[in-house]
Amino acid sequence: MAQITIKGVKKNYAKTAVIHGVDVNIEAGEFVVILGPSGCGKSTLLRMIAGLEEITEGEIAIGGTVVNKLEPRERGCAMVFQNYALYPHMTVRKNIGYALKVAKVPKAERDARVMKVAQSVSLEPFLDRRPGELSGGQRQRVAMARAMVREPKVFLFDEPFSNLDAKLRVAMRSEVRRLHRDLGVTSVFVTHDQIEAMTLADKLIIMNAGKVEQIGKPTEVYNNPASRFVADFIGSPAMNLFEGEFDAEGHFVHGAGGRMNVSQLNGVRQPGRKVVLGVRPEGVRRTGADTHGAIPAVVDYVEELGASRLIHADANGSRIVALDNDSAELKSGTPVHLSLADSALHLFSLEDGRRISH
Amino acid sequence: MIERSPFFDFITYLAMAFGALVVVIPFWITLVAGSQSLQEVSQVPISLLPSSHLFENLAAAWTRGDLGPKLINSFIVAIGVTVGKITLASLSAFAIVFFSFKARMICFWLIFITLMLPLEVRIVPTYSIAANALLPFQVILDTLGITGLVQAVSGVQIALNWNLLNSYTGLILPLVATATGTFLYRQFFMTIPDELVEASKMDGAHPLEFFFDVLLPLSRTNMLALATIMFVSSWNQYLWPLLITTDRANFGTVVMQLKALIPAQNGTPDWNVTMAGALIIMLPPLLVVAFMQRWFVRGLISRDK
Ligand SMILES: Nc1ncnc2c1ncn2[C@@H]1O[C@H](COP(=O)(O)OP(=O)(O)OP(=O)(O)O)[C@@H](O)[C@H]1O
Ligand SMILES: [Mg+2]
């Protein structure tokens, strides 16, 4: 167990900068998930922690020791790779025990430790098979066992489940959760699957284009996105975002002149201020036409989710999505009235996308 | 490509049969001639059916060509060259593929250039090096004036000399350098996924441990394929052994002895003995290929997982 401190870390490949200064503190025993769109530099950051990639600038410390100049094997990290990266010519037993063999652990102790780890991920029946004779899920478990057997200070996962089918992914997710609870080892988990991120993380790091957008608990990130990017990226279905400005009466004007009554944003309604207004689909409800501040819209199409459904509608040139529990049939072209829940409004600056608190 | 037309099948089989015939006929003629008596082999046209004198001819060739010791020499050289080539090729490819050092591309191109310089082209300089393997150092010392300096100071003249003529070292070393081998290994090593390299780094393996524990086991079939080619080609070496061995009795190889088996200009035209000798000489590479061909084919066309 060790804490990880990342200070002002940058990474350039030749001339292109891919990480532009990242500062993160990871507490000992914490489960941290790095989430972000493809190409944002998640793997690069993880690999710099592991020692597989050189750190261009800044400092990474594991357990209080700066590791910038240390070889991967001296850092005490174990990594689980996306494509398992098992040694194809070795049996499962040898795959798991290889790190111990290299570390010159005596054979008897090695066998005992391999057996113990294999039991904890239910791999004993397969110990004498080669990776080629295993299913994807079993291979992934071998990869995890291989990481665990060294009893590392830190676990690093780089999208370990992205080659598995949906059901197996859920199973592996809870397995990882359980292992973390049992072992309590500091873990950094990279993914671009937000459900995986939300369910696993003690702390979520949202990255975009080589920068950290937000660090926080999953609920915090969901309820208080720090930027327009995070608001858009987190949550499915995605948050409704309207670009617009406030008029003299304090109404929010968007699209082709649509107006919304947003009196709860009292303090920040300077006329002419250009902002982005965000509201999650579950904060948008159908109401009667006579409700105060109701937004008239025209149904575009309806997405059935089973228990509920999503109404995609057009409100004065702006697209709006509402979560609806009513089962009444809505055809395309039907006029509806929508209202925004008071507590659910988010406001971002149009200029730099940062959150405007109110 | 799968073609299902009887006509096309026929053409394919015809081409294959023709190819097989072209390959097999010389062997057959060697075998037939080697089994005939002097009279039979002298007939024109020669009969294409084997006769019953094979073993006498083999015995005659064996003593005339002194094939026993020469076979041993050939084995020593061929195995030495094969082992040396594989070691050198795999290690140089390992360095080129898995390490990023500054001179990497230079090394790569230097090796690449030697593809264009087979032994036959550089045989004269190679010979002069073999005559004194320390010659380059002597030249360096001479040009730097160190030789003169040392002589002036101590009265000792530096004359470096390491003669490789008439030695196994001289027979083997110049044949060991192989760009082809390096390339074959490089090609194979480049198919090893990066993640495997990284996994071994995370496991704490030293680069050499990675080489021996991961890379070599994975390239076993390639290695056997390469060994087969190397063995056959070094067994067949003629020019270099001929040049470097003046002491034929002790360091001659069997392929050089082929010449000794050919009837003299005005001697008895006993080609049956020559052919029998040829049979003995080509047997080892044939056996090696026959024995290795399973791996040979696998190593060249696919990788086992
Ligand atoms: N060896 C390299 N040389 C140059 N650029 C690279 C190299 N490796 C990665 N990059 C660039 O760095 C950026 C970040 O890559 P990285 O692999 O960290 O992304 P990622 O967030 O892990 O994406 P994904 O979710 O697709 O795995 C990308 O734009 C990529 O093109
Ligand atoms: Mg990645």
Task: Jot down its keywords.
heterodimer; A: 358 residues; alpha+beta; Rossmann fold; OB fold (Dihydrolipoamide Acetyltransferase, E2P); 2 domains; six-stranded mixed sheet; five-stranded antiparallel sheet; 25% helix; B: 305 residues; mainly alpha; 73% helix; flat; binds adenosine-5'-triphosphate; binds magnesium ion
What does this structure look like?
The complex is a heterodimer of chains A (358) and B (305). Chain A has 358 residues and is of the alpha+beta class. Chain A has helices spanning 42-50, 72-75, 92-102, 107-120, 136-148, 166-183, 194-200, 218-223, 228-233; strands spanning 4-13, 16-26, 31-35, 57-62, 65-66, 77-80, 154-158, 186-191, 203-208, 211-216, 240-246, 252-254, 258-260, 274-279, 284-287, 295-304, 309-315, 318-324, 335-340, 345-349. Chain A folds into 2 domains: 4-226, Rossmann fold; 240-349, Beta Barrel (OB fold (Dihydrolipoamide Acetyltransferase, E2P)). A 6-stranded mixed β-sheet of chain A has the order 6-7-8-3-9-10, with helices on both faces. A 5-stranded antiparallel β-sheet of chain A has the order 13-12-11-14-20. A 5-stranded antiparallel β-sheet of chain A has the order 15-19-16-17-18, with no helix packed on it. Chain A is elongated, with a radius of gyration of 25 Å. In chain B, 73% of the residues lie in helices and 0% in strands. Chain B contains 17 helices and no strands. The two termini of chain B are 24 Å apart. The A-B interface holds A 50-52, 71-73, 77-79, 81-89, 98-99, 102-103, 132, 146, 150 and B 193, 195-196, 198-206, 209, 213-214, 217-218, 305. The complex binds adenosine-5'-triphosphate and magnesium ion (MG).
Secondary-structure topology with pairs:
The complex is a heterodimer of chains A (358) and B (305).
Chain A lengths: L3 E10 L2 E11 L4 E5 L6 H9 L6 E6 L2 E2 L5 H4 L1 E4 L11 H11 L4 H14 L15 H13 L5 E5 L7 H18 L2 E6 L2 H7 L2 E6 L2 E6 L1 H6 L4 H6 L6 E7 L5 E3 L3 E3 L13 E6 L4 E4 L7 E10 L4 E7 L2 E7 L10 E6 L4 E5 L9
Parallel strand pairs in A: 3-8, 3-9, 6-7, 7-8
Antiparallel strand pairs in A: 1-2, 1-4, 4-5, 9-10, 11-12, 11-14, 12-13, 14-20, 15-19, 16-17, 16-19, 17-18
Helix pairs in contact in A: 3-4, 3-5, 4-5
Chain B lengths: L5 H29 L3 H5 L11 H11 L2 H32 L5 H11 L8 H9 L3 H10 L1 H9 L13 H9 L2 H12 L3 H9 L4 H12 L1 H16 L3 H6 L3 H4 L2 H8 L9 H31 L4
Adenosine-5'-triphosphate (ATP) binds next to helix 1 of chain A.
